[in-house]
Amino acid sequence: MTLVFGVQIGFVNAADGVPEVSRDVRAKAALVKLKTEKQVALLYVKGMTCPSCAIGIRVKLSKLDFVDGSRFKRGVDMDVNNQLLTVALKQGVQPNWQLIDQQIDDAGYLAMEWFSMEKNGLKTYPLLKVAE
To answer: Which residues in 47-119 belong to E strands, given as ranges?
Structure first.
């Protein structure tokens, strides 16, 4: 909040939205999501704590060739309570993590890691940033 001539002007930031959740809470939510949704890419996006975040990220990701825009909202579902982003993938297509990461960066957010279901349960992979 900023006080200007006795008038408060509010600014939206992560503190005004939902606070970041713990890794354990996020992992439990990711496990549920991957058990219920098929043919998706699931990511943790740092700072994605309010519904307004959806607009920029959704616009960027929905333009990717491998995104199934007929699912969710233009191919993207956002769980701001757990900072999880689900991207619907076209049948038989693997996600291009570098393109997804770039589009999220272009929208002003930071994709930290992605999740996968494997034989031993949930597996987390860091998104490696490519030096420019």
So the answer is: 76-79, 84-88, 110-118
Given pLDDT bands bounded at 50, 70 and 90, which one contains residue 19?
A: confident
Pick the CATH number of 20-126 from 3.30.70.100, 3.40.50.720, 3.30.930.10, 3.60.20.40: 3.30.70.100
CA-nearest of 66, 73, 61 to 89 is: 66
- What residues contact residue 60 under an 8 Å CB cut-off, 6+ apart? 103, 104, 106, 107
pLDDT at 5: 40
The CA R_g of the chain, rounded to the nearest whole Å, is 16
Residues in the chain: 132
- Our measurement of the distance from residue 114's CA atom to the centroid of its chain's CA atoms, rounded to an integer in Å, reads 9
Give the integer Cα–Cα distance in Å for 128 and 49: 22
What is residue 2's predicted lDDT score, i.e. its pLDDT?
A: 42
